[in-house]
User: Fold this.
Amino acid sequence: MRELLYLIVESIAVIHNKIMSLNDAWEYSFTDKELHFLIIGIIGMLMVFMVYPVFKWLANHNAIMTMTWIYVFTLVIVLTFAIEIGQKVSQTGVMEFADIMFGLVGFIVMFS
Assistant:
């Protein structure tokens, strides 16, 4: 779990540094907060353009339960990560990727 989080953090740091170097190379003076505003905004819009056709297709095929399942599964992923990070911060447990996987499999099995 720790290795995965370090890999994610390291990847984000590399991307962040590239964006900052582009910001400097193009002589823009965006602050870190302004860059977060722009980059997260762009990523969010791209995600909407990718997800919208899928959900529209599902809605046209009367697959509301599938849409609900996708939404809830996404929330369960966020929740399991939040629980594991909370355990690490509060030192009430060991942060392990296996805990996240078992939680997600538990959702899938219970739903099945």
